[in-house]
């Protein structure tokens, strides 16, 4: 991986900050795109498919933490928060909400670049892409919509939770325990029969032959993966 392979999105409404950050990143060879508020930032993530997001905590139309939570519904791409708050409780809330790191303003460009390198090194080069496609199956995580052969499939809230979490890690095995904990909470981790029921319901809705599934595969004794 070279810096030329990395796309970084900066979401910040302060022109001075954007100029400094953009110049610093471009000088290192990164590809950079910008947004000035939460709404356009979320749209730009879906359009630009960044490998890393720099997100300001104070945006004119939304709280940065709400934008963070929205993005975490469908992407694991590293997100570094830019904030003027130097409060421990705020930082804890950000990390709990899914931030990978944070920078307190004002910050130096050397520290910024170091944090970017660490985030990319720790997580690897992944894209923020909200759409999973496999043959006639499309899972749009940003619109929270599932279609088969162009027809929208009506799913229950729990059915969507199951397929969306598999879609975020498509191709990888997601353990039953992990799915149970994420959807129903830690106390339900052993109630895997609930999960089997919802997977069977999903297969009936998205598979041509539910008894021989091609999309949601079972890894016996481990979990499921979406391919």
Named at the architecture level, the CATH assignment of the largest domain is 3-Layer(aba) Sandwich
The portion of residues forming beta strands comes to 15-25%
The unreliable regions are: none
Number-wise, the strands total: 12
CATH H-level name of the largest domain... which superfamily? Response regulator
- How far apart the termini lie comes to 25 Å
Structural class estimated from helices and strands: alpha/beta
Q: Secondary-structure element order, as H and E?
A: EHEHEHEHEHEEEEHEHHEE
Strand order of the largest sheet: 2-1-3-4-5
- Give the CATH topology of the largest domain: Rossmann fold
The dominant shape is elongated
Question: In CATH, what is the class of the largest domain?
Answer: Alpha Beta
What is the C-alpha radius of gyration, as a whole number of Å?
Answer: 19 Å
Helix content: 40-55%
Total tally of structural domains: 2
Q: Mind describing the biggest β-sheet?
A: 5 strands, parallel
User: What is the mean predicted local confidence, pLDDT?
Assistant: 90
Number of helices: 8
Short description:
By secondary structure, the chain is of the alpha/beta class.
Describe it for me?
The chain folds into two domains: 121 residues, Response regulator (Rossmann fold, 3-Layer(aba) Sandwich), CATH 3.40.50.2300; 96 residues, Orthogonal Bundle (Arc Repressor Mutant, subunit A), CATH 1.10.10. It is built from eight helices and twelve strands. The longest helix has 15 residues. The strands form three sheets. It has a five-stranded parallel beta sheet, with helices on both faces. Strands 6-7-8-9 form a four-stranded antiparallel beta sheet, with helices on one face. The model has no long low-confidence stretch (mean pLDDT 90). Helix 2 runs parallel beside helix 3 and helix 6 packs across helix 8. 41% of the residues lie in helices and 21% in strands.
């Amino acid at each position: 991986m070279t810096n030329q392979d990395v796309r970084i999105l900066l979401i910040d409404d302060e022109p001075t900050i954007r100029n400094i950050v953009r110049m610093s990143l471009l000088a290192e060879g990164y590809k950079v795109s910008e947004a000035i508020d939460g709404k356009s930032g979320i749209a730009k993530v879906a359009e630009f498919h960044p490998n890393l997001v720099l997100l300001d905590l104070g945006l004119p139309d939304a709280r940065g933490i709400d934008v963070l939570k929205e993005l975490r519904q469908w992407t694991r791409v590293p997100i570094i928060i830019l904030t003027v708050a130097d409060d421990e409780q705020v930082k804890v809330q950000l990390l709990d909400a899914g931030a990978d790191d944070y920078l307190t303003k004002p910050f130096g460009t050397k520290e910024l670049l170091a944090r970017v390198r660490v985030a990319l090194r720790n997580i690897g080069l992944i894209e923020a892409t909200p759409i999973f496609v496999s043959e006639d199956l499309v899972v749009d995580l940003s619109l929270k919509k599932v279609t088969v052969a162009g027809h929208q499939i009506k799913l229950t809230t729990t059915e969507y939770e199951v397929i969306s979490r598999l879609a975020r890690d498509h191709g990888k095995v997601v353990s039953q325990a992990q799915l149970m904990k994420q959807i129903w909470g830690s106390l339900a981790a052993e109630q895997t029969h609930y999960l089997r029921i919802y997977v069977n319901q999903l297969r009936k809705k998205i598979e041509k032959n539910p008894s021989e599934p091609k999309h949601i595969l079972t890894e016996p004794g481990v979990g499921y993966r979406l391919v």
